[in-house]
Amino acid sequence: MKSAPKGVRLHIGLFGRRNVGKSSLLNALTRQNVSIVSDVAGTTTDPVEKPMELLPIGPVLFIDTAGIDDVGALGEMRVQKTRQIFDRTDIGIVVAVAGEWGEFEEAILKELTERLTPTIVVFNKIDVADVSAEHLERFRRDEIPCIQTAAMNGSGVLDVREALIKLTPEEYLNAPSILGDLVGPGDLAVLVVPIDTEAPKGRLILPQVQSIRDLLDNDSFCMVVKERELRDALGLLNRPPALVVTDSQAFLKVAGDTPDGVPLTSFSILFARSKGDLSAFVAGAVAIENLRPGDKVLVCEACSHHPIGEDIGRVKIPRWLTQYVGGKLEFTHFQGHDFPPDLGSYKLVVHCGSCMWNRREMLSRILHCQRAGVPITNYGLAIAFSLGILERALGPFPSALEVYRQHL
Question: What is the mean pLDDT of the chain?
Fold first, then answer.
């Protein structure tokens, strides 16, 4: 499980002041010296990530954040990085020193609560101080798990692990299938995988690999072809496939070679559904119709790869959108977990499929955009709309197709 991608791991964030023992707690939970432990406040300068297997949950990612009571210019940078962790936290752990709960901890708890993030309160260092009965009663009344630990000697750590298991969201334990509801057992999906300069040498990209695995897990058949071989491959079949899935960049050719009666979509649209909110992304795609020359468009990519050649986010999508609008647009690009705090100047956000992320972070980005009143869509939907084939690409998803028709 150590090789499981981050996007399928339960993200557990540790938050609190400097020097309350977050790193010691993480080391105790993982049974490894992952984070440096010191009496000097602010030893953890950047979020420390530790993937591990936490049974019976499965693969998880612990994130030890820098203390967010830091001061100064460097401290503010650390705080900003820590705040980004809120967006991708599935379960939050608020760590405080026993006997020292105040407005600062309340603010962290409030942030997690408003995001509907399941939260555990840990009072650490009980070997040197006591937790007040008032605080214990307050968290019992609010039904917030409250655990007392002395992380340096392991006291209470098993209770934290047990609380994590109990708080694991149901949607994580029973995550929806990527393709299982679209391709039944014994049915065939044809996956169209272009091999171009951006294809990683000797391997497939993550959405393709995960789709193949999902089909196998659901006892479905899978045929993988390049776009140039699709027409011949379909001609060899004695019955139509249940679904054709293409890389979004090959949408036009694949749509032309796939018979009208065969459902068609893209990997990016599949991940718009499994990692985000397909209906919100569809509404964002339709908003392309309202773009005008000179408008600002934000293009975001979850992974920080080095763009080469005809990069989809920096070259192809800007070209297709510019052609659709009929005039020059102003594009801004962000990669990784960075995201502009002020979205007010943008008319549209176009996001990658976020295969490297957990669903929580993508839903957080959608929420940020909705609060700012800025439509957001993803690569595959933006491409399909600008090429005039979005209605067909949404054929396998009746509810999303209805949203599309309502927004036209």
Answer: 88
Structural class in CATH, domain 188-268: alpha beta
**CA atoms of 117 and 212, how far apart (whole Å):** 31
Backbone angle region of 155, left / alpha / beta, with phi > 0 → left and psi within -120 to 50 → alpha:
beta
Kindly report the number of other CB atoms within 10 A of residue 108's CB atom. Answer: 23
Task: Please give the model's pTM, rounded to 2 decimal places.
Answer: 0.78
Would you call 186 exposed, middle or buried from its count of C-beta atoms within 10 A (0-12, 13-18, 19+)? exposed
CATH number for region 277-407: 3.40.50.11410
Query: Do the first three CATH levels of 6-173 and 277-407 match, i.e. the same topology?
Result: yes
Q: How far, rounded to the nearest angstrom, does the alpha carbon of residue 37 sit from its chain's CA centroid?
A: 30
pLDDT digits (tens, 9 = 90+) for 269-313: 999 999 889 999 999 999 999 999 999 999 999 886 666 667 889
Q: Per CATH, which fold does 6-173 belong to? A: Rossmann fold (3.40.50)
How many Å apart are CA 33 and CA 36, to the nearest integer?
Answer: 7
Sign of CA pseudo-dihedral 70, 75, 76, 80: negative
pLDDT at 37: 44
- Sorted by where each begins, the domain ranges of the chain are 6-173, 188-268, 277-407
**CB proximity list for 61: less than 8 A, separation 6 or greater:** 6, 9, 10, 11, 12, 49, 50, 51, 358
**pLDDT at 255 exceeding the cut of 60:** yes
Q: How far is it, in rounded angstroms, from Cα 9 to Cα 343?
A: 29
% of the chain exceeding 90 in pLDDT: 62
CA angle, 269 then 333 then 374, to 5°: 65
Residue 105, CB-side half-sphere exposure with 13 Å CA sphere: 22
> Can you name the residues that pair with 12 across neighbouring β-strands?
62, 91
**What average pLDDT does the segment 190-216 reach?**
84
Give strand ranges (E) for 55-145. Answer: 58-64, 91-97, 119-124
Dihedral over Cα of 250, 251, 253, 254: its sign:
positive
